[in-house]
Amino acid sequence: MAVNHLCQWQYLRFQLSHPSAPACRYLSPSRSKSSTSSTAKVSCSAAPSSSPMDSHNEGRKKFMEFPYASGPVRQLMVDLVSTVENTLDSQLLPCTLPPDVQYYENQNGTAQASLQIRSGLKSSLIDFVLGSWVHSELPTGGALNITSLSAYLNSSTDAPNVLIELIQSSPTSLVLILDLPPRKDLVLHPDYLHTFYESTRLDEYRQMLEKVPEVRPYFSSSLYLRCVVSPSAIMVRVDTETETGAGESTRLDYIITNHVHPVAKQVIGIWLNQCACGGRHVGESDKAYLEKRDGLIKNKTIEIDLGSSFPRLFGPQVASRVLGEIQKVFTA
Hints:
Distance between the termini: 15 Å
Mean pLDDT: 85
Strand content: 15-25%
Structural class: alpha+beta
Helix content: 40-55%
Strand order of the largest sheet: 1-2-3-4-5-6-8-7
Number of strands: 8
């Protein structure tokens, strides 16, 4: 969340100011296949009314609706969330956020959001998995829709985290951020660069997307964001020419379905296999370094971005409530 929320709220601010757990294993689809439909089966256990599990299921149901996302974006996010949850489910606790944090909106109803955070078991490598969507009507007309999924590992491992974010402000434009942010200095640790970025051929997925004519590199105005992502980060903007009639597929829909979705599924699969389920552990001295570094990144998110963007979008009362719960997860 720390990295991808820096981007999404920086982007939103711009728009608003301009009128031992069981082992896991993920079997990734063949690189040559581009299936975009989710085959993961999601199940929810029955629970007594008003129980924590009941709250988790209700909040998750609202989150998984992605009500303001386009059809292809909704299919992509449901597929990715289901894949991550089904692979890591035995290592994840239910979401325990209060109901008014799992879904919230501003006073005049022009902005709505859903938030799901599932912490990992102490015996696992997972710190937490976070998913969210935000819908905001823009002062200039139209709306901004942001969907994101990120997963953080704890200090027992130095393997990279993962994030994906899709930012859409019109039916013809999309910003995609997809990355495995490193947790070690790549200059000082070239073996880390080789293990997680070179040998996994992550940069090939960026190259694949940039071959699509409508895809261009996206440069965030946040220098901080640029310095925390990896050399193979996919940060692109997709701009297509024209809209179509209601109910018709657009060129952007086609690109999301046939290019973005397969690439995202492959990258998430690499993270699950090599990072979340890779079994890589570190010693006590490295744990202290990782705890400090991870903590700085999380705190930076609250300080320089969420702290100003949340109150502007949702009002001080809602912002305080949501940020307070996020802070508890960040510092747990």
